[in-house]
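WARN retry 2 of 3 for item q-0093 after timeout on previous attempt; input resubmitted unchanged.
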Amino acid sequence: MKICFRQTTYAAPAISEKEFQRNLILADLDKTRRALEDAYTGFDSVTDPDLIDCYIYEVNSVLKRYKFLLEQAAKINLLPDEELDPESPVSALIG
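OK item q-0093 returned
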């Protein structure tokens, strides 16, 4: 059996530090959004009081992480001002 290896390398395009941070925060926001959806789905599907408490803590935890990530995004001017409205449903839930 013959194995052939290529010796060419493909360099990833160079991106700036700000672009790297932007991509990282956007990926974390997306992952957090999906985790929040999962927590709400779990909360809606359980009936055991202990599991209800568990999902309440999980939802609160994910909401706080989401708020933190939004603040980080605002620091690097990633989001428009209307995205960080203090009357948003997220801030009402975090309270």
